[in-house]
Amino acid sequence: MNEQQHWNKIASSYNDEIFDVFASDRKKILPEYLKKHGKKDGTALDFGCGNGKAFRMLSPLFRNVTGSDISENLLKIAAGRKFKNVALIHRDLADPETELPKTDFIFSCNVIMLPEAEANMQMLRNISRTLKKGGSCVLVVPSVESMMFSSWTLMDLYRREGTMPENIDPEEFDYFNGAPHEIADGVFYIDGVPTRHYTAPQLESMTREAGLKLTALEKVEYNWESEINDPPKDLKGPYPWDWLVECRKG
Question: pTM for this one?
Answer without folding.
Answer: 0.94
